[in-house]
Amino acid sequence: MAEDESKGRKILVAVDEGEESMYALSWCLSNITIQNSKDTVVLLYAKPPLAVYSGLDGTVYLFSSNIMLSMESYRNAVAEGVMQKAKNLCSQHSDIEVEAMIESGDARDVICGAAEKLGVDMLVMGSHGYGLIKRAFLGSVSNHCAQNVKCPVLIVKRPKSTAENK
Amino acid sequence: MAEDESKGRKILVAVDEGEESMYALSWCLSNITIQNSKDTVVLLYAKPPLAVYSGLDGTVYLFSSNIMLSMESYRNAVAEGVMQKAKNLCSQHSDIEVEAMIESGDARDVICGAAEKLGVDMLVMGSHGYGLIKRAFLGSVSNHCAQNVKCPVLIVKRPKSTAENK
After folding, report:
1. Helix axes A141-148 and A107-118, enclosed angle (nearest 10)
2. Best CA proximity match to B142, nearest among B151, B133, B129
3. Which residues contact B3 (CB under 8 A, 6 or more apart)?
4. Cβ of residue B38 closer than 8 Å to a chain A Cβ
5. Which of B3, B23, B147 is the best substitution to test chain A (most A C-beta atoms within 10 A)?
6. What is the mean pLDDT of residues A54-78?
7. Which of chain A's residues have a Cβ under 8 Å away from the Cβ of B150?
8. What topology does CATH give the domain B7-165?
9. Do residues A83 and A138 make contact, with C-beta atoms less than 8 angstroms apart?
C-alpha cells in the first residue's frame, strides 16, 4: 500500500437522502480510508433535475416560475442537509480531507460523470438510490454505476438489523 | 479502524480464469487489506456444474462416464491453476492470511452462498464472470452478487490500458 499512502487516494462517495448512503459513507470511513494518509473523500450529492417532472402515467408536468423557485429552494435545502450530515460523519475522522460536490441531474449520470471527470481511485455508494417503482423500471443506480464507471465500485448495503433500528 | 484492526476482517475474493479477477485481487491486496492486521483473504473459485451442458439452442448434452472423468480432471486442473496464480499474488503480501475454497456450481450461487455461509465482511470481484453471450442473457455475475449479497461488494474493473498490455 506504500504507493497509495504516499500520494493519497481520491475516493468518491455518493450520498443522498437515504440512510443507506450514510451507512456506506461510515463503512468507507472505517474500512477503506487509511488513517494518517493523504486520502481525500469527495462527497457527491445529485439534485434531481428540476425542469420537468413526470408522473407515473408518463404525463409531464410544467410548473410556474413561483413554484419552480420554491422547489429549487427546497432542493437546495435538502442538498445542504444531506451534505452537512455527511460532513459530520467525516469530521469524526479528522485526518481525512473532505471535498463536497453538489450537481444537478439524474443520479446515474451525475455519479458516472463525476467519477470520470475527477479520475477517482474508487467510487463508494449505497445500493439504493431510487424509490422502489423507479428502480424496478430503470434498475438501481448502483448497478448502472458498477457497469459504467471505470474505477472500482464499492456497493454497501445497510444491514437489516441496523435498518430496523433506525 | 481500531475495531477492525483488532479482530481482523474476512474478505472474500472471487477468482476465475480471467485476468480481470486477478486484477481485482491485486487491487484488493494493495488498497483494501491492511498491512500487519489480522485480515484474512478467502479465495473462492467456482467450478462450472459438470453434469449437464446445454448448447445455445437449448439442447442438453449428456456425456459418457469416460468423457465425464476427463472433463472433471480438466476442471480440477483449471481450478488448481487459478488458485495457484491467486495464491502467488497473495504471497507478495506475507502478512495476509489466505484461505482457499473451490466449490462446484453456478458462479452466482457459489459466490452468494459462500459470502452468506462465511459471514464475510466484504466481497471483492472483477466485473466479468461470464462470456459475452451468457452475460447478455443472465446479466453479469457481479451485478447479481451486488444485488443479492448482504455484505459490501467491491467490483473492480481492469483498466483498458492494463487489459491491452496483457
Report:
1. 30
2. B129
3. A30
4. no
5. B147
6. 76
7. 157, 159-160
8. Rossmann fold (3.40.50)
9. no
Residue B119 has pLDDT above 90, yes or no: yes
Q: Is the pLDDT of residue A93 over 70?
A: yes
Among A1, A24, A155, the residue with its CB nearest the CB of B146 is A155
Confidence of residue B4 (pLDDT cuts 50, 70, 90): very low
Are A153 and B154 in contact (CB < 8 Å)?
A: yes
**Residue spans per domain, chain B:** 7-165
List CB contacts (< 8 A) between A9 and chain B: 31
Q: Does domain A2-165 have CATH number 3.30.830.10?
A: no
CA distances from A161 to A7, A43, A156, B150 (A): 37, 26, 15, 12
Q: Which amino acid is at A34?
A: I
Q: Is the pLDDT of residue A161 over 90?
A: no
pLDDT (tens digit, 9 = 90+) per residue, B23-66?
999 999 999 987 767 899 999 999 987 655 556 676 666 667 78
Min Cα separation B103/chain A (Å)? 25
